[in-house]
Amino acid sequence: MTPLSLLDLAPIRQGGDAAAAYRATTELAQAAETSGYRRFWLAEHHNMTGIGSSATAVLIGHVAEHTRSIRVGSGGVMLPNHAPLVVAEQFGTLESLHPRRIDLGLGRAPGSGQRTVRALRRGSVEGAERFAEDLAELRGYLGEAGREKMVQAVPGAGLDIPVWVLGSSTASAGLAASLGLPYAFAAHFAPAELFPALARYRDEFQPSGALAEPYAMVAMNAVVAETDPEARYHFTSVEQQFLGMARGRTPGPMPPPVEDMDTLWEPDERDRIRAWLWASVVGGPESARQQYADFLQKTAADEIMVTSQTFDPAVTVDSVRRLAAIRDEVGAA
């Protein structure tokens, strides 16, 4: 059975606040755990009023404290925003508090505009183009401690924290392959290079101390409800957020669903957003099962990570549970 995991951004909903978002995220992680999800990851974003997971390591610790067995991690920490030593210390602390439950997924993009990057005190010269170098430095801090090391991560050194390379391009796939690291592709919002990236990762993979064979996880959207129309209705909250981005706005608080997106977008906007959201399972149990099985067959993913965002947290929990049942049915077929 292909493992199923969950990605969350602690969405802040219209009329709500960050505290409410964190309560919903905690309840979602608990539901994922009881439904047999393997991981619960949180994504770093800044200066976006609809996303509450900016202090990613802090929120990971909170979720880990309120769950028992599910792996909790970053999907991801945007390494250009941070000094590698600080990341090593943060995740060393998390691993020390929650042994064998912490994942460190790393992205090469800052995940925000240049003004926000400067506010984080990391200039563009130290950004994405330094990702491979910063990744090597970070992994060095997480390696075995030794007297010869002038700078050590305390805690962090010598801890067995799985490091993942995240990306949405063939370049990130090539880097993960060359280092022999697990790779997670962000098809949930940038699916254009999904299949070339998976092919490059698998073709160029070099076995390492971390991984003997390639391991590719693919992220997708999912809203599963009682009926197809109900699922499509709830998915319009995500489509509205992407419409805002298509019009040059940063994601604001998640809006309530609407009955008809054609009253909001133009045909060219609709086509663009549907291309962005191609990697999605949206429907009732029967159609969602077919969509999920088709996606799994096409990607041959070693693991699927879904993001299931709706305006109503209870609907999200229900969707996550329904998808777990589909995982079990597809896996048993």
How are the elements arranged and paired?
Elements: E1 4-8, H1 18-34, E2 39-42, H2 56-65, E3 71-78, H3 84-97, E4 102-107, H4 114-119, H5 131-142, E5 163-167, H6 170-179, E6 183-185, H7 194-204, E7 216-224, H8 228-246, H9 267-276, E8 280-283, H10 285-299, E9 303-307, H11 313-332
Parallel strand pairs: 1-2, 1-9, 2-3, 3-4, 4-5, 5-6, 6-7, 7-8, 7-9
Helix pairs in contact: 1-11, 3-5, 6-7, 8-9, 10-11
Provide key terms for this protein:
TIM Barrel, 43% helix, globular, 333 residues, 9 strands, alpha/beta, single chain, eight-stranded parallel barrel
Give the proportion of residues in helices.
40-55%
Overall 3D shape: globular
CATH homology group of the largest domain: Luciferase-like domain
Radius of gyration: 19 Å
How would you state the average pLDDT, rounded? 94
Total count of domains: 2
The CATH class designation of the largest domain is Alpha Beta
- E-strand count: 9
The structural class is: alpha/beta
Q: Tell me the CATH architecture of the largest domain.
A: Alpha-Beta Barrel
N-to-C span? 10 Å
- What topology, given as strand order, has the largest sheet? 1-2-3-4-5-6-7-9
Estimate the strand proportion. Answer: 5-15%
Look up the CATH topology of the largest domain: TIM Barrel
Main sheet record = 8 strands, parallel, barrel
Number of helices: 11
**Topology pattern, helix = H, strand = E:** EHEHEHEHHEHEHEHHEHEH
Low-confidence stretches: none
Please, could you describe this protein's structure?
- The protein has an eight-stranded parallel beta barrel, surrounded by nine helices.
- The relative contact order is 0.14.
- The protein has 333 residues and is of the alpha/beta class.
- The N and C termini lie close together (10 Å).
- The protein has helices at 18-34, 56-65, 84-97, 114-119, 131-142, 170-179, 194-204, 228-246, 267-276, 285-299, 313-332, and strands at residues 4-8, 39-42, 71-78, 102-107, 163-167, 183-185, 216-224, 280-283, 303-307.
- The protein is 43% helix and 15% strand.
- It has two domains: 4-220 and 302-327, TIM Barrel (Alpha-Beta Barrel); 221-301 and 328-333, no CATH class.
- The protein is globular.
- Helix 1 (18-34) runs parallel beside helix 11, helix 6 (170-179) runs parallel beside helix 7 and helix 10 crosses helix 11 (313-332).
- The longest helix is centred in the C-terminal third of the chain and has 20 residues, at 313-332.
